[in-house]
């Protein structure tokens, strides 16, 4: 297959590859392998840390991914882009958050640590990810290391006070009591750009599937964008296509819709 006939397809994880119960549908798994068998490049684009989806990467045999919403990018097993948080600003934000009883979890490419021993908000939000690890306590984990994302735990709307002061960061809510802290201007779209530059695919050869608010820039940038049927209206509105919900074989339906797969 010539490069001009191949495509690169980026898949979000939660609500896209995985159902809301964090299960990978059998039909979705088969579709991924069918794409690869046909010569296409398959990649993941997620807000998760690399250590949060290693098992999924192994199951799908995928070694190209955009993680931390574009801040840590790997192509064929090698890091091609890393964009870390401003640690001076993060330290000041952490001090302010502590005064407000808003805990922080610091995250690098290998691990995550909380600045408080325990907190109900951390348990409530992290448990929804259904992963086999939980942040342990190390209030100094931000020192002398590159952090690509942190988590701020606060009720909806209370992140506004941080947005007004800490301009080095973008704040993206992913749970009713948790917000991603990202380097300002970072996104899945930026991470995808780094991979596409290396692979040499044209805009027409690029596809992306997603469902969350952190997918908006990706879906509005990638030419062949597909929103899951379970996505919010604002996500669907920026996408070229809308497929069925994840639990209704939305990935398979979407791939057929855009002509990447054909079921007999």
From TrEMBL:
Which chain regions cross the lipid bilayer?
none
User: Could you state a single Gene Ontology molecular function term?
Assistant: phosphatase activity
Query: Matching SUPFAM superfamilies, A to Z?
Result: HAD-like (SSF56784)
Q: Show the CDD domains listed in the entry.
A: HAD_HPP
Coiled-coil regions listed in the entry: none
Q: Hey, what's the signal peptide range on this chain? A: none
Q: Report the Pfam families cross-referenced here.
A: Hydrolase_3
Listed GO cellular component terms?
cytosol
Q: What is this protein called?
A: Phosphatase
């Amino acid at each position: 297959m010539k490069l001009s006939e191949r495509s690169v397809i980026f898949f979000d994880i939660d609500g896209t590859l995985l159902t809301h119960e964090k299960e990978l549908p059998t039909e979705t798994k088969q579709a991924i392998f069918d794409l690869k068998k046909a010569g296409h490049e398959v990649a993941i684009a997620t807000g998760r840390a690399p250590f949060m989806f290693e098992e999924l990467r192994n199951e799908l045999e995928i070694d190209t991914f955009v993680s931390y919403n574009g801040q840590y990018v790997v192509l064929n097993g090698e890091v091609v882009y890393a964009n870390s948080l401003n640690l001076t600003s993060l330290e000041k934000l952490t001090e302010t958050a502590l005064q407000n009883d808003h805990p922080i979890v610091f995250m690098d490419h290998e691990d995550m640590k909380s600045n408080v021993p325990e907190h109900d908000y951390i348990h409530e939000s992290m448990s929804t990810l259904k992963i086999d690890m939980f942040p342990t306590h190390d209030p100094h984990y931000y020192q002398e290391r590159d952090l690509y994302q942190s988590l701020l735990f606060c009720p909806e709307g209370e992140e506004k006070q941080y947005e007004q002061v800490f301009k080095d960061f973008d704040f993206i809510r992913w749970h009713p009591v948790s917000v991603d802290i990202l380097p300002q201007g970072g996104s899945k779209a930026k991470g995808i750009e780094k991979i596409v530059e290396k692979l040499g695919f044209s805009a027409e050869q690029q596809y992306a599937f997603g469902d969350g608010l952190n997918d908006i820039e990706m879906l509005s940038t990638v030419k062949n964008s597909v929103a899951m049927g379970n996505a919010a209206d604002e996500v669907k509105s920026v996408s070229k296509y809308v497929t069925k919900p994840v639990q209704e074989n939305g990935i398979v339906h979407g791939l057929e819709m855009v002509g990447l797969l054909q079921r007999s």
